[in-house]
Amino acid sequence: MKRQKTSSQSGDRSTLPWPEEYRAFEPVIRDQWGVQGEIYLNRLLSGKSGAAVYSVDITAKDFAGQAILKFDRVSSADWSEEREFERHRRAFEVDPDYAQEHLPRVVHALHHGEDTAILSTIAARGLEYATPWADCAHKPQVNIARRLSADLLECWNPNYRLDPEMLEPVNLLESWLDYRLDSDEGGKIHEFLGEDCGLPPEEPTYIFEGQSYPNPLAFAKNVVPLKRETICIRGIRGNFHGDLHGYNILISKPSAAKPKYYLIDLDFYRDDGFLFFDHAYLELTYLIQGRAQATPDHWASILGNLSRQRAAAQRAGLTGDDMGLVQLVHTIRREVGGWIDRHEPNRLSYLESQYLLARIAAGLALVHQKRPHASRCMALTYAAANVADYLRLHRLDWPKHGPELSFRPPDSGMDTEGSRAGATAAGRPGSGSAAIATAEPLPLKPAVAVLPFEFLGAETDHEYIADGIGDELIAELSRIDWLMVIARTSSFAYKGRDLGVKKIGQELGVDYIVEGTVRETGRHLRVTAQLSGAHDSRQIWSDRYDLDLDVDDIFILQDEIARAVAYTIDNRIWDKESDRARRKAPENLDAWELYMRAAWHFYQFTDDGDAEATKFANDAVARWPQYAPPYALLAFLATRAVLRGKAEHPVKNMMRANEYALKAVGLDHDSSVAHNALSRVYMMEGRHDLAVTEAESAVALDPNSSSAYLSLAAVLLVGGRAAEALPTLNMSIRLSPKSPLQPVKLFIKTMCLFMLGKYEEAEEAARLAIKERNVLPVDYLGLALALVGQDRLAEAHAAIDKAREMRPEWSIAHLTASVESLDKEYVATVIEGLEKAGLPANSPSPGGPVQDEPAKRS
């Protein structure tokens, strides 16, 4: 399968397009590094502040294989590739054992004009076998965080050094932050406080959520003099990474008792810096990533629970999902504390102070970066909370009063309590959430809040079941990537408060409300759930479920109910949003509605519908180029055109499909529909192992997605694994028995049964498909094969005639050309059966379909 060209100037082809801002750099790289053949940009690993990091496959002098290619802008006038290369070389010299197992090795470094490029390997077997730490599930995250936190000290710094001088806090902060503390040298912290927040940059104290916080910039600049004899410490120095966030840590994928981790991007590496900054930066970036949409009071609560004096500082209870977040941070900190106890127990106060100062520095470092306003405010208050802990540790006084710090920029017109106002300004009213309004708008997905289920019973010991169903339902809905689900902290604040759906919807800024009851009757519980529109209070759906209190594991039944409710809500909201988008004038549609309109046309399974779907999806991409679902839909449309024989240039269509699917995954690695699309592309390219992996990822990301199961079943079937495909397909049907994809599902089921020699059951599935309103021509092919298996050739010929009435161009040659990348045994069996059924050998019409494409959103 040929791939897309990297640029119009060269003949290279790549799975991802060459980044436009570095396009002129490509011929320089090829010449200077002696590149032979093609440069494949396989995956975008990260991209911030002008940098772009890709996994690549390259053949150059001194190296051939998979590596990491980083593009960046020159950071200062005295930058040189020799300095960059020297950082990596020095890391290997200082600790070769640790470096060999965990660090990248630079192969080439290049400086051209204002641009830089670094080619480095990793210690892993390859990036296809690694995933960013930030994208892992919670349990492996905790395990790796524990090992990494300890290894950074025990393994990477066995020869740490005590600084010969007694130092003040400002000495350590200046070492970590350098020019960032000086506005004249390009530091942006003063500008953020003064211009973005409208606050005096060196005001000693700010008020945040009714509590006074020391200004960390004023602390770093020594605005309030502190007693030197009280604050001086003996710091420890050694190796540190300098930019250790969750996407610069890769985790090996193969299942193992102890998965390995690998660190990439040593741009900020130092071998003589004060330690603990890496631990602080990792925990802060993790916190902000996990709570980027936290409300101010929610963020203040998290900071309180991370304080040295949690009992006194705690402002509110943590939500269930906050517990894991805080647990991981404390895991990192405990490993540091354990190392101090083992190595420097007599300098405990010094090193605890150094760790607090590292956290202050990490917070200010993020404030300096180009991030959304709210994220920078979160970093600032994180640094301030650690200043407060530092002052408490040393019993130091600090001014208690000052101006108020807001997560909202001055005069922004945005509502600090939610994104409703911001969403309305962006174009679509009613798509808000209880999140902070940020400078970079998120996709305006429909927002849903799950209110706490009301317990109606005398036995209060069973009230936990009601709360548990609500918690599980929030967790299940949160896995649906096209929905915005309000955090438990916000929605459960309405427990016991009967304000009405419309009022709660307005306060939370959501489009839909889920509520329910749990009624106790003897040894049984009856659970009711209902979905209502938040704007008009109209009930959209309701149902009831029964729980037996005498079962062995009531939690399993809780999970099953939550999953069933989540699946139904998923489909009801999808249908509601699709219908609403279809009724609006095209010129009034925003990006989300354009995508919904495209999806509605997609499910019509007609040529005109596909043309309209392509038009609306392209409009969505143009309006919102960073939104993944329209790219996934375009990938499905491109593959469908090839499958149906409608593509004038099938190879070009597949190149576009590949580009669209990879773009979708690159934009949103957690999108089930994006992985679903990539699975289909890989299947049609004959890359079956990768296709299965991507389909399994789609299922794992959204276990309620019937289309994800459908894609996995299709990939298993055409890979010659019909026995595995059948139960997967049955799960898809069970999850969504009335889906518009039902004819596709029944065709796949027909083919599974046919390949397994169960011809009568195959016929039954095919006849069910033919009864569907939107029957597809491939369903008649499936029926013909089932009849051939029973030697009913006359009926099989009639089924072929029906199929060719709908697709006159179909022939054996046509079909063979379309399925050449599939499992040979599968293809041979199908072709033999269709020949017996009477499908002609050749047709005057070019092209060739196999089946229509199941492309439903996850």
Short description:
The protein has 33 helices and 21 strands. With 858 residues, the protein is α+β, with helices and mostly antiparallel strands. The strands form six sheets. Strands 16, 17, 18, 19, 20 and 21 form a six-stranded mixed β-sheet that branches. Strands 3-4-5-7-6 form a five-stranded antiparallel β-sheet, sandwiched between helices.
Overall spatial form? globular
Helicity range of the residues?
A: 40-55%
- Write down the oligomeric state: single chain
Uncertain runs are 1-14, 77-82, 311-316, 412-443, 845-858
How many alpha or pi helices?
Answer: 33
The major sheet is characterized as:
6 strands, mixed
The end-to-end span amounts to: 27 Å
Q: Count of DSSP E strands?
A: 21
Beta-strand percentage range: 5-15%
Structural class based on helices, strands and sheet pairing: alpha+beta
Task: Round the mean pLDDT to the nearest integer and report it.
Answer: 79
Explain what this protein looks like in three dimensions.
- Helix content is 49%, strand content 13%.
- Strands 16, 17, 18, 19, 20 and 21 form a six-stranded mixed sheet that branches. The chain has a five-stranded antiparallel sheet with strand order 3-4-5-7-6, with helices on both faces. A three-stranded antiparallel sheet has the order 8-13-14, with no helix packed on it.
- The protein has 33 helices and 21 strands.
- α2 (81-94) crosses α3 (96-102), α4 (138-154) runs parallel beside α12 and α9 (277-290) crosses α13.
- The model is unreliable at 1-14, 77-82, 311-316, 412-443 and 845-858 (pLDDT under 50).
- It is an alpha+beta fold and 858 residues long.
